[in-house]
TrEMBL record:
It holds the Pfam family Response_reg. SUPFAM superfamilies: CheY-like. This is Two-component response regulator. It comes from Tsuneonella dongtanensis. Keywords: Phosphoprotein.
Amino acid sequence: MRAIIVEDEFLAAIHAESVLERCGVQVIGTAEDMEGALALSDERPNLALVDLNLRDGFTGPAIGSSLARTGVEIVFVTANPSQLEGCNEFASPVIEKPIDEQLLVDTVERIKRQAKPTSQAY
């Protein structure tokens, strides 16, 4: 599984990357805003951890929707989950910051189990 992290807080991004790598997920990039996140989508991730409030504002929900439409599994990671009310059109999982590592591991493992097998080689 290949993932991107959309997070503008350096320490939060490093923490999330560490947890994902322990789950056997290859982190292929980190973005701090919508432009960077959409550019990373060209790398064909399977998973994206997306914060709501980024360097360019409250763009996380739009990023999540855009990526989800291309088949990327989204996990929102935010200190303010109530901000997502009415914006989570794909009912993506939400993990509150600071990240509970076991909750993230469990969420990623569930997504891996539900992932459809693909014939594409990465």
